[in-house]
């Protein structure tokens, strides 16, 4: 993949990975250029989403970004707060985050996942105006869906290791198993 290929992917929209019955809908900040160029979520080398998903027990093996549709068989899906691809999340405006939060709320009301898992506390705060939100389960709900804020798996997030992220993802996995809708064991 060349720099020109990546730049050509700027502002592209990457389709969500969703189905009618989801235990957890993971929500990234917005697609990066590698994700937009490949059409696969969390595709940038160094992003720890896929390894952490496996380490936490959500998937029985380490999936590659190109295998993202397999998540649906585990009752998992992926979307983003902001649909537009950028090189960095700091290219997004405050209004894009707020509008993304409104659109995400509508999506969650339609899809009705058991949990919405936002990967990135800063994105959650900006999208939903929850300035004091922290990592973990939130008091806010959307329809019947509960919300859990997870650490951002970007390689730039040096405050969290893959192991400590996997622990937090694992807490969500355990919670999602105890209050699972019918049809998802």
What is the residue-mean pLDDT, rounded to a whole number? 92
The fraction of residues in strands falls at 15-25%
Q: Which structural class is indicated by helix and strand composition?
A: alpha/beta
Name given to the CATH homologous superfamily: Uracil-DNA glycosylase-like domain
Low-confidence stretches: 180-185
Biggest β-sheet strands, sense, barrel:
5 strands, mixed
Q: How many domain modules? A: 1
CATH arch. level architecture = 3-Layer(aba) Sandwich
Count of individual beta strands: 5
User: Cα distance, first to last residue?
Assistant: 39 Å
Order of helices and strands: HEHHEHEHEEH
Radius of gyration over all CA atoms, rounded: 15 Å
Trace the largest sheet across and list its strands.
Answer: 2-1-3-5-4
Shape: globular
Determine the CATH topology.
Answer: Uracil-DNA Glycosylase, subunit E
Percentage of residues in helical conformation: 25-40%
Number of H- or I-type helical stretches: 6
CATH class: Alpha Beta
GO molecular function, one term: uracil DNA N-glycosylase activity
InterPro entries: MUG/TDG, Uracil-DNA_glycosylase-like, Uracil-DNA_glycosylase-like_sf
Enzyme class: hydrolase
Pfam families: UDG (PF03167)
């Amino acid at each position: 993949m060349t720099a020109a290929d990546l730049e050509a992917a700027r502002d592209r929209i990457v389709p969500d990975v969703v189905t009618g019955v989801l235990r957890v809908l993971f929500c990234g900040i917005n697609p990066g250029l590698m994700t937009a160029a490949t059409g696969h979520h969390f595709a940038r080398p160094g992003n720890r989403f896929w390894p952490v998903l496996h380490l936490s027990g959500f998937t029985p093996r380490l999936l590659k970004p190109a295998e993202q549709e397999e998540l649906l068989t585990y009752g998992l899906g992926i979307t983003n707060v902001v649909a537009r691809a950028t090189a960095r999340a700091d290219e997004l405006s405050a209004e894009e985050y707020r509008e993304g939060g409104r659109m995400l709320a509508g999506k969650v009301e339609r899809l009705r996942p058991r949990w919405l898992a936002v990967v990135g506390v800063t994105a959650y705060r900006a999208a939903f105006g929850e300035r004091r939100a922290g990592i973990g389960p939130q008091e806010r709900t959307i329809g019947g869906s509960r919300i859990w804020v997870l650490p951002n798996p970007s390689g730039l997030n040096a405050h969290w290791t893959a192991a400590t992220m996997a622990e937090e993802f694992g807490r969500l996995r355990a919670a999602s198993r105890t209050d699972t809708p019918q049809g998802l064991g």
